[in-house]
Amino acid sequence: MSLTRGAVRTLAQTDGHNSMPSFMPVVQIIHVKKVETPGGAGSERFRAIISDGQHYVQGMLATQLNHLVHSNQIMENSIVKVDEFMNNLVQNRTVIILLKVEVINPDPKQRFGNPTDIAKEGDLSAGGGGGPPQAQPMYGQQRNQGGGGMYNQRPASAAAGGGGGSNPYQNRFSNNASSNSSAPIVTSSSSSSASITPIAALNMYMNRWVIRARLTTKSDIRTWSNARGEGSLFSCELLDSSGQDIRCTFFKEAVDKFYHMLEVDRVYTFSGGRLKVANAQYNTCKSQFEVTFDQNAEIHLDNDVGDIQHQLFDFVPIAQLENVDPGKYVDIVGVVKSVGQTSSIVSKKSGQELLKADLVIADDSGVEVNLTVWGDRANEVQSAYVNCPIVAFRRARVSDFGGRSLSLNQSSPAMVNPRIPETQRLQSWWSTTENKSIGSMRSLSSGGGGAGRMDSFEDRKTIASIKDENMGHTDPSKPDWLSFKATFNFIKKDRDGGAWYPACSNSGDPCKNMYKVTQTTDGNWFCDKCQGTSPTCVRRFIFSATVTDDTSTTWVSVFNEQAEVLFDGATADDVFKQTFEDPENHNQDAYDSYFAKANFTDWIMKCKVKQDTRDGETRVKTSVYSLHPVDYAKESRDLLKAIAAL
Predict the structure, then answer these.
(1) pLDDT tens profile 170-199
(2) pTM score, two decimals?
(3) For residue 329, which of 20, 22, 119, 395 is within the disulfide window of CB 3.0 to 4.6 Å?
(4) 154 exposed, middle or buried (CB, 10 Å; 0-12, 13-18, 19+)?
């Protein structure tokens, strides 16, 4: 493997990989040394001398390459291919920052050529690299030499770069001077007065930078409290004309200063932030970095001249969601086929009430999926998504709940009928296939959710599938879902006091008429959850039953909402008043008649199958999630269609 001739001169005269993306030279690392920081503070860094056999230049390895030194893949005389780099200026001397390399030969056992210091050439037209030489080749000096050696010099102070403790390396090609002003946002007539850095060119070794970007998302303000203190924060995402976006977070005083000033879809210039490596678990932006801002940041409203997109989408066809791992984020665009009612649940983690609404989204891949909208925006879906609009959803989270489903948090953007080519294509497709596709489109969310939406005929299974597919045993922490057509053939109604339980009459938080209450000696009802006492309670159905089809029979658990559907809308309190309210005159016949009428009726059932451990015994439990009456005419048409397809 030969070294790239003239590579060092090109590295020294080029501002970085982004200006010459095709330039990936093969060079030799002729020396590597750890940078000793005073007191051992800061991240571990390694300096390097880069040679092309003719010249050498001082360099620095980015921290993400440290593992290559620790594993001896990069050491003295290693041959590497430089994939990404930056040209910086440290103490008036050119320093090449290696951001990404490919190790060609970790130990070739020799040094190629007799390279000389490129700084002595005095002909670096990019500026800053010429001038009097300040150091001799390291391999020609004594390492314990005091004072004059490069490795005995301290880096330029952070104060000189205005970074307040951040990395001292300054981009030699950036002349912007961002001050630590605490002035509020002001309108800037033009951004030409500042040297704008593309988001794609940001790196950890830049001290001063200014980015010009559109604010595409802004989260709600969140608060935290721990042993180290308390405070508030919010995050947003910025998109610039290079087509790359970056996440930024504002803390404490910066929240009070900037939150109400920043508006989504406006263009601003940002400076005075601190870069850090992005946390891939929570950050889905394209940039490998993220920014934190404090109250000293400078943010200026800039003219929107149309050079920055309003949103950055990377659409995934709905049919391909089956191949996307749960927990990943995707952009989708499709027709909102149906909108469910807004409901609420209580979070098991926080105990807070969460609003939600379920949508059914379809696209021209011929597949639909359930998407859950969370937060206050769930109250807006009924009015926002009328008449089956085309909606682009940004960064919806993929879940394996009931097959495949999506969820959209409060800060994830959603654009109705966006001005993109996909909108016109989907409108044309939907106008020609709407009537045909409503009943026959395949759903990825056939197992659950969907606000009680009935699954299609093609998505149904049989009761025998529970055992045949080993449902409930695959992952004990997650349920399996299935839908089938079945008949109730036994309902277990012989429960002491009736097939229900007394629940708290408090319809608000935290009980919401769900938690069990006990009757006190004075006839009142006491709730352990809210520690309240009430003269009344709310009864909720709960009982077991067996259902059967032509393949098998299984026990199922039936809860309040499904039981009310089974009993034609009658509530447990309605049945109690007609049957057991008078303790001296029970009307057993009236009680039995409700169950007799419901027995031997046909239903399309959606069920959850999950392992349940009680008293040290583990068993698989099947619970009815939703019930839909059978439309016999439609059922007959579906059967004839299925037979014809055989």
Answers:
(1) 444 444 433 343 444 444 444 444 488 888
(2) 0.44
(3) 395
(4) exposed
